[in-house]
Specification:
Helices cover 10% and strands 35% of the residues. By secondary structure, it is mainly beta.
């Protein structure tokens, strides 16, 4: 999909304010901020795997999200060594904003998801381990307490880059997708 086909727009202050509770909650779940774990893994690019089912796997129409507490779903996954649990998926009450949140656990050596891009933006909060975030060909390392951002339309993947399992939370925000 071409960049011009993404129908991008800036998030306004109300949309950003709607994100803050999720940002604060995820940060509180992370161990001590910036506690880095040593990594013996090379900064190579593992072969991409199958994508983990995302928002497209949630039955349509998406439900309207309301204030409350959301508990994790049963674990699901599309590759050995990688499991996720969805907390919520739906449309924010404040407007036509699609939101999804899940937690993913990757074992050492697990194949990362397929390189992809979406109409929504993704925010990652690392709980434990060392993750490799690739956005548009640039690879960065994230450790416990770190936050990664991939804007709508950017190619990306997240992989375990350490010698211990990694766990991270993902919050997606954007326009409703087909």
């Amino acid at each position: 999909m071409e960049q011009s086909q993404l129908n991008r727009r800036a998030i306004d202050r109300r949309e950003f304010a709607a994100l803050l509770p999720a940002l604060i909650a995820a940060a509180a779940l992370a161990p001590e901020a910036h506690a880095q774990q040593p990594s013996t893994a090379a900064a190579d690019n593992p072969v991409p795997g199958k994508p983990t089912p995302g928002i497209e796997s949630v039955p349509k129409p998406l439900p309207e999200l309301v204030s409350g507490v959301y508990t994790p779903s049963a674990p699901y996954g599309s590759a050995p060594g990688r499991k996720s649990q969805r907390y919520l998926a739906g449309i924010l009450k404040a407007g036509n904003i699609q939101t999804e949140m899940h937690e993913t656990h990757q074992e050492v050596g697990a194949v990362h998801e397929a390189v992809g891009k979406h109409l929504h933006s993704e925010i990652w909060f690392v709980k434990e381990g060392v993750c490799e975030l690739m956005t548009n060909g640039v690879i960065r390392r994230m450790g416990p307490g770190d936050v990664g951002l991939c804007c709508a339309g950017d190619l990306h993947y997240v992989a375990n880059a350490g010698n211990t399992p990694c766990t991270y939370f993902v919050v997606t925000v954007g326009p409703p997708e087909p």
